[in-house]
Amino acid sequence: MNVFFDAISLLISADNDLLMIVGLSLWVSLVAVLVATLIGMPLGAATALYKFPGRKVLVVILNALMGLPPVVVGLLVYMLLSRSGPFGVLGLLFSPTAMIIAQTILVIPIIAALSRQIIDDLWVEYAEQLISLGASPTRRMMTLLWDGRFSLLTAVLAGFGRATAEVGAVMIVGGNIDHATRVMTTSITLEVSRGNLALALGLGIVLITLSLSINAAAFLVKEAAENRQV
Amino acid sequence: MIAQPILLLSLNSICFKASGKQLIKELSYQFKVGPRSIIIGPNGAGKSLLLKLCHRLLEPSQGHIQWHVEAENKSNTAFHQAMVFQRPVMLRRTVSANVEYALSLRGINKAQRRARTEEVLGLTGLNHLARFSARVLSFGEQQKLALARAWALRPKVLFLDEPTASLDPTATYEIEKVINAIHDSGTQIIMTTHDLPQAQRLADEVLFIHRGRLLESGPATTFFAGPTNQFAQAFLKGDLLMWDRPETKMLGD
Ligand SMILES: Nc1ncnc2c1ncn2[C@@H]1O[C@H](COP(=O)(O)OP(=O)(O)O)[C@@H](O)[C@H]1O
Ligand SMILES: [Mg+2]
After folding, report:
1. Is residue B2 part of a domain?
2. What is the complex's ipTM, to 2 decimals?
3. What is the C-alpha separation between B31 and B167, in angstroms, rounded?
4. Which residues of chain B carry a pLDDT beneath 70?
5. Which end of chain A is more exposed for a tag (fewer CB within 10 A), N or C?
6. Domain presence at residue B91
């Protein structure tokens, strides 16, 4: 029980190390999700709405990549960024940028696949009506993105959830360096192995709270979308 | 001397094929400017397909469709038409935004959009719901909104696909009132229904369709007084004309 109180007191005292770890975690994941949204959402929407060669293959690939193991993505990005890799000259390995790249790759398939499903369902419902009203293909896309905005936001939140929770990729490409690339998940792994359960548990509490808040937010967004009166 | 009727839309032996089945067969008809045309026939006759072909949501596999309306923009006859579907499609927006959206696609400016939206919501009795999400409306109200949205565009022709198919008598009555008002405002109505009393209430002319064929057409009074086609007679008597009844084989398919 002592460990639990120590963890709480660490949180309350807003321990500097702990704040830095939480801050870096949020920063890395937020930027990764932002980039993944900018790439994944148009990709998903386009595969739903436009017919182009290779579309079905792309859909299958995106769906399969949703379950991509983080360590594999980590390994891939590691090989690309390592000194002997094609992007080695950039010197990005073991930096927050490397972690952002890895998480972006991890999250793109989730946001793309979920967006595709959302836009696809909406298109089935809207297609005849929008064509009947004379909406241009561009206008159709804009309409679907706007009318699907609440569901699409839950797709983004799902991506953020995956980014903050994963440990394998950031561990490999970030290296878990103190005060540089240490984030919540990698730090928990390390502190547990060191026997420093208080800090690990403190971070665990933050992670769980974060995850609960994201799910609560997703739920409220859905709820609001369904019973919106204005 | 009787004035020559003005042609609106010609269907020249159109066929429609899907999944290897001939669903509309060699159908020809000339819609004229003026009368409310009601397309009747049992479920699965091809009524919805025919409307969608006329509205260019589907392309005929054979034959062609010709519009005779003079268009400001010749390349796009679609802008003279609107369609209301059997199941109303409500955008995830407010009632008034649903109407304004349709108007915005016609490049109408904001002030005019507002005014026109208020006008049609008033005409259809939906004004008090203007700021509600369209998707919280009852089914009947949604269908009325779909009519209002189409009416706002002031189309020359409005296609209605069984607009009251799943409504109770009160809601049906309300919808029929709106349909008559739209007709009186100068929009031509081309509508399908499988509801005979409704066809009798609304039709100026009737097209009877069965298994993808136009079997009889003519003025409503003549048709309801006694159709000549045996399937039309059976339909009026309340026979459902099931797909697999032996006598339908006489149609040659
Ligand atoms: N895309 C399609 N592929 C195959 N069959 C279809 C398709 N669309 C409609 N049908 C069939 O065509 C027939 C006519 O359909 P429809 O026009 O919807 O009938 P209704 O007169 O009830 O409106 C039905 O038997 C329907 O199952
Ligand atoms: Mg139908």
Report:
1. no
2. 0.90
3. 28
4. 1-2, 70-78, 240-253
5. N
6. yes
